[in-house]
Amino acid sequence: MAAREAGMLSAFAFAEGETGAPGDILLRAVPPGDAGAAALATALHDKVQWGVVQSARSAETNTLFSIAHPGLALERQALFAAADILHLHWTSWAVPPATLRGWLAEGRRVVWTLHDLWPMTGGCHYPAGCGQYRSACLQCPQLADAWSLVPNAFEEKRAAWSAPGPVVVAPSRWIAARAAESAILGGCRIEVIPNPVETEVFAPRPDREALRAGWGIGPDDLLLVAGAHDNREHRKGGALLMEALRRVSEDGRLAALLPPGGRLAVAGFGKSALPSWPGLRTLAFGEVAEDEVLADILSAADLACIPSIEDNYPNVALEALACGTPCLATSVGGLPDLVREGSSGVLAEAAGAEALAEALLRFVARHRGDAGMRAAARAQAEAENALPVIGARLAALYQDIAGPRPGAEPAAHARALRAFARAPVEVAAVPAAPFLRFPANLLLRQVAGAAAAEITPAPLPPPAADGPRIVALRTHHVHHGARSGPYQFLRHLPQGMRVDARATPLGAALAGEKAAEFRAWGRLLGTVPFGQQGNAWLAEAEVLAACATEGADIVHAIDGELALWLLPRLPAALFAGGRRPRMVATFHQPAPLLAGMVNSRLLGRLDAAILLCEAQRPAFAPHLPAERIHVIPHGIDSDFFAPGPRAEGKGLRLLSVGHWLRDHATTFAALKLLREAGLRPSLRLVTPQPPPGVPAGVTVESGLTDEALRQAYRDADLLLLPLTDATANNAILEAMACGRPVVSTDVGGVAEMTEGAARLVPPGDPQALAEAVAALARDPMAAAALGRAARARAEALDWRRIGARHAALYAALAGQAT
Q1: Which residues contact 582 (CB under 8 A, 6 or more apart)?
Q2: Residue 193 and residue 393: Cα distance in Å, rounded?
């Protein structure tokens, strides 16, 4: 509408809804003519998007999570072929990545307005605090992604619309900054142009008081309006707002600021009702379909509430301002661009109930009934968001990227659009090759049937060859969070290194009825039973296929105990250009365990073995020359795992995390000794596998989110983690990064990893363990100093540093490739 207001000939095409204005084009989807493509389209929509994805969602957030498929074959639509500018908005299930890549390759001028972060993520529309969009979506906190849908989707998008990509229009400075730091859109031109609003429709109502009276709202009542498309969406903060209102209502703070007899009333709209409590006056409008009705509701209110936890540039805030209604908003995302403290509303300092309550009380005390604030809100919307204002900015952008264009005949343009008013467009079912990487390709064959297996992936240009190509194969462990796991260094490799990261679940489920054959092949090849997992063999076969067609400089099995037993044996002739990649494997387990996991005779075929600590070296020295053994320690996300606010607590708060190689018996014995010594320790045990014999007073938990686990470290006085053996340990590193003292055992590589920044005692010695804990409990200054040293050591092991060490090894190996 803004473009039309500026006098440009434009059409608005959409896939769902009804045509309303001249120039609206409803893209009517029709099934593909090919039976295999039709089966794949149905499977992608019904069984993947609304089946697998929805069933795998975590409790992190309930905001929409979507894949890009199936889309529409818009490149075959004449309307799109005739356009000088293709301006995209919300394109999930409309513009397939291969279509956009094709437009960009043809030199088409493409502009894309970001209404959320989906164009730069592996599928989430809002990341809920996750920052992997800056580098690579490897382990999604919103999805239990055993099929690698998220990393595959991320790589498909990166290949399709990274620079040179579209011109990005960001409605808020916040989302512009997110795009600039993202791995996908960071190289694109980014312009901040706010969303427009129809200031004639959304305008102050002269009969505002009559509207309020018609709803039973008196002049002394405080009428708040709040709502979203679906009020059950956590991100929109409806529950936080209502909790804030309950607090100020029950403790009398709000009543003290209202005139005598004044009441609080809440007008809600959208799917589902906002939570309430007895005695609260509510006006439930439900789903409001007409803009004029919504404008009435917004105009009648004293304050529009936007309590978002994450948001970009919400329309309801803009529409409220245009109606002259100030806003109460959280200081998140793009909301500070819309709501200016004391001018067009009030801002809560944080997305929390008490912060919202304080901001509401500030508004009532200072601004309720303030005609000047209502006028300022309206003036802001007119000056910054009116259709002519935004239309002029878009016109300037279009002319800048496309140059002046010859004039067209408006009447002929309108007639041409009418011909496409309900245009049939074939569904584009076939994803591009990055999305079809293992094991997502197996999922699609499973859900779409045999016909889909014959489909050729949609073409995308090969990635630029400006650095070595690394194929990284990792194991998908369900207990790894989005910030843990030994593959995290991949997100911090230099930009010139091309990484094809693939994940395989543990076990043989993907091999199905062929699992027994895979085990037989494993025995034939000499692998020990641990390495005879059908999923791992399938993954190696997929890597071989990729290396045979596209080539690679390095193949790195990040879980060397499980993978890379096949490829090092193969002749160079099977790889692209007759060039065998360098074969690298990282080994995580202590030397005593490696004997049952690794056939040592096969190690000699590796070009490099990466160990986590020197304690592993004796297990490899007899089988590999010293120059092929490299020690690169495990790392930590020290940005996320960092010191922070602690919850209040009594007594000595101990924390233990994990199950692998943990000495829980010694932990419990030490706990008993501490109690006998007069201390009051409590132990919080976070583990997916609770040990037998858990004593009274020990709290056992599992399934914590990354954020909840981080808070557990922060709240603890120290991490108590005796081990039977170790090379590296996530829990120790995470606690150290959070600045917490650590008491553990001096086994394996623990001393090397902690480097003096932890108290280590002999293994299996509860008395020494209890004494080390008691000494720290009785000397807070020593405990604080140990916590500071722990944090400094964790910073030295940040994944960025570990990534640099891997990058140096990759560069050296790639230079040796033959």
Answers
A1: 553, 554, 555, 607, 608, 813, 814, 816, 817
A2: 7
How far, CA to CA in Å, does 365 sit from each of 256, 258, 802?
10, 8, 53
Side-chain half-sphere exposure of 65, counting CA atoms within 13 A = 29
Going by DSSP bridges, is the β-strand pair 424-428/71-72 parallel, antiparallel, or unpaired?
antiparallel
Among 83-87, 344-348, 778-782, the least confident range: 83-87
For the chain, domain boundaries: 2-196+396-428, 208-385, 462-631, 652-797
How does residue 413 score in pLDDT terms, banded at 50, 70 and 90? low
Looking at the domain that runs over 652-797, which CATH code has it been given? 3.40.50.2000
**235, exposed or middle or buried, with CB in 10 Å at 0-12, 13-18, 19+?**
buried
Q: Quick check: 183 and 134 in contact, CB under 8 A?
A: yes
Handedness of CA 607, 613, 616, 622 (dihedral sign): positive
Pick from 639, 801, 656: nearest CA to 729: 656
pLDDT confidence bin for 565, thresholds 50/70/90 = confident
Kind of pairing between the strands at 222-230 and 264-271? parallel
For residues 62 and 123, what is the distance between their CA atoms, to the nearest angstrom?
A: 13
| Residue 686 in tokens | 């976070």
pLDDT at residue 456 greater than cutoff 80: no
- Residue 622, preceding bond cis, omega within 30 degrees? no
Here the tokens at position 565 are 């037993």
**Residue 380 in tokens:** 């802001």
Residue 438 has pLDDT above 80, yes or no: yes
How far is it, in rounded angstroms, from Cα 468 to Cα 555?
11
Rounded distance, CA 357 to CA 281, Å? Answer: 18
Strand order in the sheet with 652-657: 698-701, 681-686, 652-657, 718-721, 742-745, 759-761
Instruction: Give residues with Cβ within 8 angstroms of 301, minimum separation 6.
Output: 223, 224, 225, 267, 320, 325
Select from 716, 734, 727, 722 the least CA-distant residue to 776: 716
One fold for 462-631 and 652-797? yes
Contact call for residues 504 and 475 (beta carbons, < 8 A): yes
**Selection from 778, 807, 365 nearest residue 610 by Cα:** 807
Contact call for residues 137 and 151 (beta carbons, < 8 A): yes
Give the pair of three-digit tokens for residue 377: 């809100």
Class of the CATH domain delimited by 208-385? alpha beta
Domain 462-631: top CATH class: alpha beta
Where do runs of H (alpha helix) occur along 654-749? 664-676, 706-715, 730-737
The 8-class DSSP code of residue 432 comes to B
SS3 680: coil
In the predicted model, is pLDDT for residue 507 greater than 90? no
Cis status, amide bond into 688, omega within 30 of 0: no
Give the residue with greater pLDDT, 218 vs 406: 218
Q: Are the C-beta atoms of 204 and 216 separated by less than 8 Å?
A: no
Instruction: Write down the pTM of the prediction.
Output: 0.93
Q: What is the pLDDT of residue 602?
A: 84
Nearest of 597, 591, 514 to residue 563 by alpha carbon: 597
* 288 token code pair: 């409001």
Q: Which two tokens stand for residue 407?
A: 């004039």
- Of 541, 539, 564, the residue nearest 554 (C-alpha): 564
Tell me which residue has tokens 């062929």. Answer: 514
- % of the chain at pLDDT higher than 70: 96
Cα separation, 657 vs 736, whole angstroms: 13
